[in-house]
Amino acid sequence: VKVKIPFGNKYLDGIFSVPEKKSTYGVILTHGAGGDMNFPHLVSLAAYLASHGVLCLRFTCKGLNIAYRTKAFKAVVEYLKLSDDYKLSGVFLAGRSMGSRAAASVIRHLSQEDDDDFIQGLVCLSYPLHRPKLQSKLRDEDLLFIRCPVLFVSGSADEMCEKQLLEGVASKMKAPKKIHWIDKANHGMAVKGRMVDDVMEEINAQVFSWLRENIELEHK
Question: What's this model's pTM, rounded to 2 decimal places?
Answer without folding.
Answer: 0.95
